[in-house]
Amino acid sequence: MENVLRPLIVIGGSLVVTLLVGWLVDLLLRRADQRHHQVPLWGLLRRCRLPLQFAMCAAMLRGLYDQADIAPKHSAGIGQVLTLVLIGSTAWLMVRIATAIVESSYSRYAHAHRDPARVRRVRTQVTLIQRVVSAIVGVVAVAAMLLTFPAMRAAGASLLASAGILGIVAGVAAQSTLSNMFAGLQIAFGDMVRLGDTVVVNGEWGTVDEITLTFLTVRTWDERRFTMPVSYFTSQPFENWSRGGVQMTGTVFFHLDHSAPVEEMRDKLRDILRECSAWDGRDYGLAVTDSTPSTMEVRALVTAKDADDVWTVRVTVREQMLRWLTAHHPYALPRVNTADAILPPGTAPHTNGADPHRSRATTRGRAVEPPRTGRG
After folding, report:
1. Which of 4, 21, 252, 321 is the most exposed place for a label (fewest CB within 10 A)?
2. Cα–Cα distance between 269 and 276 in angstroms, integer?
3. For residue 141, what are the CA distances in angstroms to 54, 127, 163, 179?
4. What is the pLDDT of residues 169-180, one digit of tens each?
């Protein structure tokens, strides 16, 4: 009877205590979150309930396993498994706690500051710090698990002796990975590019969607994703439209006939912008910037509060201006001239390469009249 009750008491008692402590901790955190709703830390710490229960249960079973007298022939293997579960659940709990603290700090900072650029910078730094902490905790946990095996402890001395050679070999082999990791830290704390920034990379316009220690993802306007190594942004030039403010100036070019009514186009541009909600009202303008033998180039200048709005203003101006020109000034649109060229005054028309300055031409020794080039 004792051989049956002892395992049930040890295992059942460990599970009951684990569930009770988890429920009590969750209750206390819920009440703290209701009393201090302006501090999101308590609500975020509730995510730690599951890893806390795993760690407590593994610790209690590991400590009381010898008294349970379960499968004594396999006690070493079962104890090893419980130790590994304890180390893994403890690392899981530490990552959850660190994540809760980091996210709480970012949330409070975002509510206290209204500058979008500073908020995005802190968000980028916080995200990378969170990833670094998770990576460190994971590496330490794996190392602790390996050291629980006697064979790994015996090989520790030889590993330390060859650590210098292994470090050199690993550094050469992982040169690209290490450079990306250091570039990620440089981006995080150098404020070079942030989450949510509008960038132009390799001729593609998009928004920074994700930053890790090794790669960076840019989401384009058509929902494509460009995944690039972070070392690219520390070694290659790129456009960051969110640096120094998000306000932007856009241009719209028209190729029109030389007879286009430029003054009336300026008035129409003003009317279009007044009806466009994306225009921020800072500035606008219209000027002739270039000309060719058949057309002239007209540039419309518009402003907006960010990259998305400036795109909206540009397409609105282009569409409505062309519609207005087509309806009211169709002659202003570019066309192909097929009429005869107008000759300078005093110049007689001629064809077939005849010289207009010669009154007669000779062919084989006899005089001939020059060809007539007029009508009739």
Report:
1. 4
2. 11
3. 15, 21, 20, 25
4. 445 444 555 566
